[in-house]
Amino acid sequence: MSAPDSSPQQIRTVTTDLLKINHPIMLAGMNVAAGPKLAAAVSNAGGIGVIGGVGYTPDMLREQIAELKGYLKDKNAPFGVDLLLPQVGGSARKTNYDYTKGKLGELTEIIIESGARLFVSAVGVPPKQVVDRLHEAGILYMNMIGHPKHVKKCLELGVDMICAQGGEGGGHTGDVPTTVLIPAVAELCKGHKSPMTGQPVQVIAAGGIFDGRGLAAALALGASAVWVGTRFILAEEAGAPRAHQEAVRTAGFDDNVRTIIFTGRPLRVRNNPYIANWEENRQQEIKDLTSKGHIPVEWDMERMGDDVDDDTMDNARPFLMGKAAAVVNHKKSAKVIIDEMVQGAVDTFHANTSTLSGKMLEARLEQAALLKKVVDAIKDLVQDCNFDCNDSGIALQAMDNSHVALVSMMLKSESFSPFRCDRNIALGINLGSLTKVLRCAQGEDILTMKAEDAPDVVNFTFESAESDRISEYDIKLMDIDQEHLGIPDTEYAATITLPSSEFQRITRDLGALSESVSIECTKDGVSFKCNGDIGNGSVTLRQHTNVEDEDKNVEINLSEPVALTFSLKYLTNFCKASGLSKSVKLCLSNEVPLLVEYSLSNNSFLRFYLAPKIGDEE
C-alpha cells in the first residue's frame, strides 16, 4: 500500500483493501478548510485524502489535483474528489442550483485522467451515466447521506460505498444521530454488492468522530471506515484560515447550530450573533425567502449593500464545524491525528474484549511462508517450545537438548494485521506437529493463528490469496515447563554483517572438512578456519561495500580482536534461516556465546546463541 509515512496497518477492513490504504480513515472534502496539502498528508500517512469544493471550474479542479499530487510522497498514492451535486428543479429545494454550472461531464473526465481512486457525491446523487463512466475507469463511487431514506436511490445507481453522516457532523448534515444512522444504513445495505468490485456495499461513518474511541464505535456499529472533518481542521497542514481554526479550538458544547441561511440546506456552523438573530427573530423571513429560491444571507447582503458593517460581513462568513469541535482543542500533524486515532481504536477494542470469554488471541500474517520458514529453521534444534503471546507480539525462547544453543524469536505485533492478545499466554507446541500443519499452506496463503481463553488447542487458518479456498487445522497444546533465561545486553568486541548466502556457503564448505570452525576477527578482516582429518580450510572476508546491491555488503565493526571456536554442526543448522533475511549478523566477544541474528520486518528477529568450544572440545 502506497503510504511512505504510514505506521503499520493495525485495522484492516474491506474499505482499506478497496482503497489500498493502511488505515480506515478518510479526510472529509472540506473545501478550503482541508485543501490539497492536508489531503496529501492524510494519504501519505496511510488514510485517504479527499479534496472537495463548492463551484469547482474545470481549471480549478485541475489545479487542486495537481497541487495535491505535488505533495504526495508516492505519486501513486490514493486520493479522492468530492463534489456537491444537489437535485435541481422538480420537487427539490427551491434554493438548490447546479454548482458545476453544466460542467459535470468535463469535471468527471478530469477526475478520471488524474488517477483518483474515489469520487464522492454530496447533497445529492450523480447521474447514472457518470457512475457508469467512473466504474469503467476503475474509480470507486461513494455517496454522502444523512437519512436512511436516501439509501435506496444510491443502491439503484450502483454505489460502492455510502457515507452516512449523523447530525453531529459539520457542514451539510441531517438530524439523525450517528449512533442511530450507522446501524440503520448498514442494515439497509445488507445483501447489496458493488457492481464494480463485487464486494458488499460498504458503510462509512461520519458525524462526531474525532478519536480512536469514535473509530472503534463506528466499526462496531457496522461501518468499515470513518469520514473525519472537524478534527482535521486543527491539523497543521489544514488550509483553514486561522480564524476558522480558532473558532474550532475555542468552541464549547453549545456553540454550533444547524441553519439553512447560508445555502438553503441545513448546515452545521459555529454560532454567532448574526446567525442567532436569524434563528431567533427571523424564522418567518427564512421560510419566505427559501420558498422563493433565495438564499437568506445572500439576499441580506444585497439588501444592505454598501451599508453592511465589518462585523456583520465577518459573521456572514460561516465557520463549518461539527459537535466534535467542543473536544478538539489541539493542533497536530495529520500523521499524529491518524496514528492516535488508530491506536486509540485498537486500545479500545483490547480493553473491551478482554472482559469477554472466547477468543483471546488472533494474529494474522499476510504470508504464511514467514512462520513456515521460522519453524523450518529451528525444528532440528528444538522439539517442543512455548510460543509466548502478549500485546507486544509472539516470542519464543528455547534451549536445544544439549544445552549448547539457545533459540530466541520475536514476531512483533506490527508484523500481524490484525493482532489481538487480551492477556499474556504461553502456547506449548510440538514443532514437528506444527511443521506438518504449516506444510498445508501454499506460498501466498494468509495465515491466521487463533486461541480461545484457557485453550486446549491452537487454530491455524490458511486463506488462499488467489481463490476462495480456506482451510483450518487445530493443534493440541502441551504443558511445557520452560525456564526463560535473562539474556544480558552485551557490548560485543566484534560485529560482522554479511550476506546470508555467504555465511551458509562458508559453513557448508568448511563442514565438509571438520566439525569445528575458528572465527577470528582482526583489523584486517574476519577469517573462518578449520582443521580436519582430511585437511584444512580457510575463508577470509574483508569489509566490502557494493553500491549496486547493499545486500552483498560485508561490514565489520571491531573494538578488539577476538578468536573463538564453534561447532559447525550448529552453525549449519542456524543457516537454515537464510531464507528469512538477505543478511546475517554475527556478534562475538571472548568468553560469551556467539550471537547469530537474522532480522525480519517490523523489528522482528530470529536469533541463535551458541556457546564456544573450550579446551579439549576444540
Task: Summarize the SSE layout with pairings.
Elements: H1 14-19, E1 25-27, H2 35-44, E2 49-53, H3 58-71, E3 79-84, H4 104-114, E4 118-122, H5 128-136, E5 140-145, H6 151-157, E6 161-165, E7 171-172, H7 178-189, E8 202-206, H8 212-221, E9 225-228, H9 230-233, H10 242-249, E10 256-259, E11 267-270, H11 273-281, H12 283-291, H13 296-304, H14 310-315, H15 334-353, E12 359-365, H16 368-378, E13 384-390, E14 393-399, E15 405-412, E16 419-421, E17 425-430, H17 431-438, E18 446-452, E19 457-463, E20 470-476, E21 494-499, H18 500-511, E22 516-522, E23 525-531, E24 536-541, E25 555-558, E26 562-567, H19 568-574, E27 583-588, E28 594-599, E29 605-610
Parallel strand pairs: 1-9, 2-3, 3-4, 4-5, 5-6, 6-8, 8-9
Antiparallel strand pairs: 7-11, 10-11, 12-16, 12-18, 13-14, 13-17, 14-15, 15-29, 18-19, 19-20, 21-25, 21-27, 22-23, 22-26, 23-24, 27-28, 28-29
Helix pairs in contact: 2-3, 3-4, 8-15, 11-12, 16-17, 18-19
GO cellular component, one term: PCNA complex
Keywords: DNA replication, DNA-binding, Flavoprotein, FMN, Nucleus, Oxidoreductase
Pfam family, one: PCNA_N
3D structure, described in words:
Pfam families: NMO (PF03060), PCNA_C (PF02747), PCNA_N (PF00705). It is found in: Nucleus. Belongs to the PCNA family. Its main location: nucleus. By secondary structure, the chain is α+β, with helices and mostly antiparallel strands. The protein has four domains: 14-244 and 329-354, Aldolase class I (TIM Barrel), CATH 3.20.20; 252-320, no CATH class; 361-476, DNA Polymerase III, Chain A, domain 2, CATH 3.10.150; 494-610, Box (Proliferating Cell Nuclear Antigen). Helix content is 29%, strand content 26%. Helix 11 (273-281) packs across helix 12 (283-291). The protein is elongated. The relative contact order is 0.08.
